[in-house]
Each structure stands twice: as structure tokens, then as C-alpha cells.
Write a structure and sequence with these properties.
Structural class: alpha+beta
Largest sheet: 6 strands, antiparallel
Strand content: 25-35%
Number of domains: 1
């Protein structure tokens, strides 16, 4: 699969979830804070990785730190799109699987949308 190919609805999408109570609530469960755009960086979308190019272990190796409690979560692109969001390739030379979740008919600026997005993602067992 080429990193620039369109992302199909059945493709798995990974998101690094940092350790700490801001990003992981008791349970642990994923908080909506993981999907908040950082306006100071003028982000157009939430960074994710596509499963057709990267594995969950690749995502952890590139972005995470298990010693600080980092985890990786996954959802399908179709589940994300069902919320009114889009998932698009946004590859970098050093990260060909990089993609973004972007606002479409729903907005990532909306707390309700981010809460719903957090619920479609589930932690991945890296063992």
C-alpha cells in the first residue's frame, strides 16, 4: 500500500495516547483531550497513523514512551467517518503512515464530537 493511497473505511487507524490523567481517565479510558486541535500550532487535523502502513508497535516506537504510561489506541476509518469526520493521508518523509483526522460535517472544535471520537477508539494490546 502506498502512503498516499486513499484510506478505506475498513483500514485501522492508530493514535498514540500519552500517559497521565489528562489523556487517560481511570479504567483506563481515552479522554477527549487526545483529539483537541492545538490552535497555537495551527493544526488542521489530529495526527494518527494508518494500519496499512504502520503497526501499533511502530506507533509506540515512534511516538510513545511506555515508561510514562503511553498506550496506543485503534479505530477504523469508517467508524471515524460515521461521526462526520474525515481521515486523510498526510505522510512525512520520516513517517509514511502519518495521517490526520479532520473536521468535515462535524467539527473537532466541538466537545461532543471529541467525546464521541474518544469512544470509538480502543486500546491495543502491544504484547
Amino acid at each position: 500500500m502506498s502512503p498516499t493511497d486513499p484510506i478505506g473505511d475498513d483500514e485501522v487507524i492508530f493514535r498514540h495516547i500519552p500517559g497521565g490523567t489528562l489523556f487517560q481517565a481511570p479504567g483506563p479510558r481515552i479522554t477527549n483531550k487526545n483529539f483537541e486541535l492545538r490552535t497555537q500550532r495551527q493544526e488542521t487535523g489530529v495526527s494518527v497513523s494508518r494500519g496499512g502502513v504502520d503497526s501499533a508497535a511502530d506507533v509506540m516506537a515512534r511516538r510513545g514512551d511506555p515508561q510514562t504510561g503511553s498506550l496506543v489506541a485503534a479505530a477504523t476509518a469508517g467508524d471515524i467517518r460515521a461521526l462526520g469526520l474525515e481521515v486523510v493521508p498526510a505522510a512525512f518523509d520520516d513517517d509514511p503512515g502519518h495521517s490526520e483526522i479532520r473536521s468535515a460535517t462535524a467539527s473537532l472544535d466541538d466537545l461532543t464530537t471529541r467525546r464521541a471520537l474518544a469512544k470509538v477508539f480502543a486500546f491495543v494490546d502491544l504484547q
